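Board notes (copied after class):
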Amino acid sequence: MLQMASEYRKAIGNNIRCLRKKQGLSQNQLSAQCQVRGFDRLTRSAIGKIEVGQRRIQLEELKLFRELLKTTYDELLNE
């Protein structure tokens, strides 16, 4: 079960990385956009950890990424 959760986090993180790059954003730029919206904990380092599956993503963060990356939940959550 834990292995499955870890693999799922990695898949979501990879999707976030691909969508971020598709938008032409660096981790720093995405982090700045997050922080402007009040998500101070989403530093460049935190985004990097999310992208490699080392940090869990909160529901409100997932909603924010969907908005900022101009995407759907399907694209974010698709394995």
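Comment from the instructor: The two ends are 16 Å apart (CA to CA). The mean pLDDT is 94.
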